[in-house]
Write a structure and sequence with these properties.
The chain is an alpha/beta fold. 43% of the residues lie in helices and 20% in strands. It has 12 helices and 12 strands.
């Protein structure tokens, strides 16, 4: 009997030790969303590179981590739904901020792309380029219809500024809507427009990047976490890692790697800047921290 109890005790201790080692080795588990089955959709590559670097830099303080992408394609509404669910398929996502998102989730209030998303260039039909070259004021631009994704945060900003906005249900479908004349311009971030034109010019041969205008409104892109104990810890970790990246220059290095070429090719010095307010920003937006924000007109 003693031998049997000793054997069972050794087995139990071995299993316990294995479980503890497995738990320690796994560390922080981070799952971000797969937002499109389209292989040419590279919109979020930069965001996840920033996330991985922030996690890397905090290993000495917070321990090991595992980072992976969800295997299920999710629409933007589905991303938010999954992130809200305890045990949902994802526990982090990156999105332009809104008051609703900041109420529902924990925002890491450090702009991932240094505020670049708020500088907007346009994808248009090549036949319409002369119409845009004649635009001098916001009133001129308001005469043209703008396309955006359904429920994107840009929609209330643009409508508050007096624009007619046509919403598309899918990201991929917006390019077809532009081709079909459902709207006149697809408002995109500086780096997005050039990249999307290059990725999709074969399937949309009459699409062009408009070369004369630059629209701006402050629009920070944040990481969002679930409002639970895991989310709070992960938010602290990402914030700590990003603050390190800001101080040591690694955030800017990744920024230049992913976005520098698009900035150079955008011809910003030739563009007329049209500025809109963003009435959706919360008081906690860190607009006073100049080191967090990139100004493409000065390059700093």
């Amino acid at each position: 009997m003693k031998q049997s109890w000793g054997y069972r005790k050794r087995v139990w201790l071995g299993l316990l030790l294995a479980a503890l080692c497995l738990h320690a080795g796994a560390g922080t588990h981070v799952v971000y969303p797969l937002t499109s089955a389209d292989d040419s959709d590279s919109r979020y590559d930069y965001d996840w590179a920033v996330l991985r670097t922030a996690l890397d830099k905090t290993v000495p303080r917070f321990g090991p981590y595992e980072l992976q992408q969800s295997t299920h394609v999710m629409s933007p509404p589905r991303v938010a739904q999954e992130a809200l669910l305890p045990g949902g398929r994802i526990n982090i996502f990156a999105r332009a901020t809104s008051p609703e998102l900041e109420r529902q989730f924990i925002p890491v209030r450090l702009p991932i792309d240094r505020g670049l998303l708020g500088y907007r260039t346009f994808l248009v039909r090549d036949a319409d380029l002369p119409r845009f070259a004649a635009v001098r004021t916001l009133d001129d631009l308001r005469k043209l219809r703008v396309g955006q994704g359904k429920d994107w945060i840009d929609v209330p900003i643009l409508r508050a500024a007096g624009f007619e906005v046509e919403e598309g249900t899918t990201y991929r479908g917006l390019f077809a809507m532009l081709d079909a004349g459902r709207f006149d311009f697809f408002s995109r971030g500086i780096d997005e427009a050039r990249r999307e034109f290059q990725e999709r010019r074969a399937s949309h041969p009459h699409m062009a990047v408009e070369p004369t205008l630059l629209m701006y409104y402050p629009l920070p892109l944040y990481f969002f976490l679930r409002r639970d104990a895991e989310g709070k810890l992960l938010a602290r970790r990402i914030e700590a890692g990003m603050e390190m990246m800001i101080k040591d220059g690694s955030l800017n290095a990744i920024f230049q790697k992913y976005k520098g070429e698009s900035l150079k090719n955008a011809g910003l010095g030739r563009r007329r800047v049209l500025t809109l307010p963003n009435p959706t920003l919360t008081p906690e937006t860190p607009l006073s921290r100049s080191e967090l924000w990139f100004n493409p007109l000065t390059g700093k």
